[in-house]
Amino acid sequence: PDVAAIRAAGQVVKRFVSGFEAGRYSGDDSVTLLTVFTDLERTALAGKTLAAARVAQSNVHTRAGHRSPAEFIAATTGDPVVESKDMVRLGEALSGQPALDQALRDGRLSRTRAKRASAAARINPHREDDLVRWAETDSDAGFSEHIGRTMAEGRSKEDAARHQRRLHENRSCREFVDDDGAFSLRATLTP
Question: pLDDT tens-digit profile of 128-155?
């Protein structure tokens, strides 16, 4: 695809959104627009993920004076560094995960589900097609359950023991006051 053509398409979307007055559209048209914008968002995410992996591979960050590709990408996109790292990791993994790669390119997966399915497929590559299907169709709770089982099935006994030790070592409990002033508790425990 031509870089100029994708820029032009992006400008069409920007012009539409800059003059978008949601109240002028019927409920049915609003549903259509919501669907179109979701599709565009997912398509853009796929392109962004693939481009980020290539940016990381090309070492452009060194010329720009950044310590890592993720820092350069974060500075370019305005995303947090941790999100940039996740995006690069996903983009790099997709080269060995053809079903996930195609599902992401087709806009069938959200960023969150693609990332989680990719992580599980790295541990249990034989379940990649199942992971794509579950990511597309299951509820959050059902998908989480499938992810956990798929990862557990893919670990050797030694890997499972290391995983269990890592979970045990990384246990934490943090209390804080959130942005609304409410007392909050964040805990990570072992299974």
Answer: 999 999 999 999 999 999 999 999 999 8
**Amino acid letter, 189:** L
Q: Which residues pair with 187 in a beta bridge?
A: 173
Amino acid residing at 81: V
In what helix (H) or strand (E) does residue 168 lie, and over which residues does it extend?
Answer: helix 157-169
Question: In 3D, which of 4, 6, 100 has the Cα closest to residue 47?
Answer: 6
Q: Angle between the 128-137 and 98-105 helix axes, to the nearest 10 degrees?
A: 30
Would you give the DSSP letter of residue 138? S
Q: Which residues, in sequence order, are bridge partners of residue 188?
A: 172
Nearest CA-CA partner of 72 in 89, 88, 50? 88
Residue 66 · residue 75 · CB < 8 Å:
yes
